[in-house]
Amino acid sequence: MEEDVEEDVVDLAANSLLNKLIRQSLVESSHRVEVLQKDPSSPLYSVKTFEELRLKEELLKGIYAMGFNRPSKIQEMALPMMLAHPPQNLIAQSQSGTGKTAAFVLAMLSRVNTLELFPQCLCLAPTYELALQTGRVVERMGKFCVDVQVMYAIRGNRIPRGTDVTKQIIIGTPGTVLDWCFKRKLIDLTKIRVFVLDEADVMIDTQGFSDQSIRIQRALPLECQMLLFSATFEESVWQFAERIIPDPNVIKLRKEELTLNNIRQYYVLCESRKDKYQALCNIYGGITIGQAIIFCQTRRNAKWLTVEMMQDGHQVSLLSGELTVDQRASIIQRFRDGKEKVLITTNVCARGIDVKQVTIVVNFDLPVNQAEEPDYETYLHRIGRTGRFGKKGLAFNMIEVDKLPLLMKIQDHFNSSIKQLDPEDMDEIE
Ligand code: ADP
């Protein structure tokens, strides 16, 4: 029983933050951007350079100071729409790391009138930390826009009643923004020109946030530009987006599919946990390992394995859900920098966090759902690579005999072969 309690659940907001903390560059995509225009007969503009956007000099300087040379794939299409006159509404979906935040920050900065000292742009984010991250981007990109200022409408930021808020860009969580607008009257929503709803998929995942966002949106003036961003687009996100963004243009960039094509998969039959560990050591000793990630189903197993490996003199680090997001980010960063060779983790790490140089993935436990059926999606996320950008890899599954039927189901599901391996004889691998 206790084992179940220890299992780490995937926290969307924490994962999103983690990705932001770790990410240093754009995520590539081989797909084409799909565009659905509100008015299909109007010409469709795309830009290949930032100069074409005719931005304020100081804003362009900020963009180049961030090291951006040219617009990302999604920005090529989104920026002309966002900066058009009259302003156009936009719903944009693309996976994290494709340049959405940079795009709407640019839009907000370009629309601020620095001579006016009141809130003009409002951005809603799902958590305090995500709001701060977006604020940092505003500060970096707006470094040379000296008269533009940001303020955070987040819990704990206490503003005395009657304060005259003079900052032009407000970033906050729905609850606090609602409070500042309606109860405390710190923000006059009728003067907002740009409304951004970021991370819509994370937002609707949080109780109450959709309704609060809609209440805020309803009080905005008709001419306010409304922009919504999401990394994923399930039906529920889509319904919410359509409720909250009137007459939108829609931009989508499909996610790079994961495949198992470039991955050689093996399994080792084991009797017990100790046995699995022994097999792992044999594999570890038998092949030259670049970097490896080892997945366990529970925190307890992950901890046990970490201790065992350390006692045997291996240099490993443990990434678990008990750590704060900052701690997790720094462990992942060290691993990416090659400071650690082996990373042991539970499912928290399986989603969205790509460590490209990893050549070996070990399932110390198979991913299963609560019904004790194979969790195919998690298996794919742990082991799969994107066809075009991924490297070849090796995957090992440590299987107790009674789990063999689960493995066979996985094999059938993906229609890809998982070969049995004798841990005493590693020659089979190469
Ligand atoms: P998203 O909001 O889709 O997750 P971000 O806007 O945060 O994506 O961008 C992801 C990373 O790429 C960030 O590190 C950001 O600084 C960088 N980035 C964004 N746009 C560009 C660009 N045009 N050129 C180079 N890097 C960019």
Percentage of helical residues? 25-40%
Strand-pairing-aware structural class: alpha/beta
Give the uncertain stretches in residue-range form. 1-6
Q: What proportion of the residues form beta strands (DSSP E)?
A: 15-25%
Task: Count every beta strand, where a strand is a DSSP E run of 2 or more residues.
Answer: 17
Report the principal-axis shape.
Answer: elongated
Number of helices: 15
Biggest sheet overview = 8 strands, mixed
Enumerate the distinct ligands: adenosine-5'-diphosphate
Instruction: Please tell me the overall pLDDT.
Output: 89
Q: What is the gyration radius calculated from CA atoms?
A: 24 Å
How many angstroms separate the termini? 40 Å
The strand line-up of the biggest sheet is: 1-8-2-7-6-3-5-4
Your description of this structure?
The chain has 430 residues and is of the alpha/beta class. It is built from 15 helices and 17 strands. The strands form 3 sheets. Strands 1-8-2-7-6-3-5-4 form an 8-stranded mixed beta sheet, sandwiched between helices. The radius of gyration is 24 Å and the shape is elongated. Residues 1-6 have low confidence and may be disordered. Residues 23-26, 66, 68, 71-72, 75, 96-102 line the site of adenosine-5'-diphosphate.
Comma- or semicolon-separated keywords:
430 residues; alpha/beta; 8-stranded mixed sheet; 36% helix; disordered N terminus; binds adenosine-5'-diphosphate
